[in-house]
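W.,

You were right to be curious about this one. When I first looked at the sequence I had no strong expectations either way, so I just let the prediction run and decided to look at it fresh. Below is the sequence, 97 residues in total, followed by the output.
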Amino acid sequence: MTVVQALLNAKHIGVRDLREHLSKRLKGKKAIVVTEHGTPTKVILSYEDVVELIEVLDELQDQATIQAVQEGRKEIRRGAEGIPVSRLFDQIRASRK
């Protein structure tokens, strides 16, 4: 599951619930969306998820990655079957090793 999927599927909890059950809530590895009066205001992510997000942001600053994404979009418009972005990033990481 990607970080985005985890965030979209994250449990929403109120600030009061978080305060009362903080240690219990932090034991899990799932993303948590903290709400105030029903409105999402904060997100709690695992360390691994934050590292993954930082890696993705770093890769998006890389011109080779941007070019690969642009080329993929052109091919999809021409009718080619696309691949998930996570697989693209895995391929780029593997090519750099």
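Here's what jumped out at me. The beta strands are 11-14, 32-36, 39-44. And, maybe more interesting for your project: The radius of gyration is 18 Å.

Coffee later to discuss?

I.
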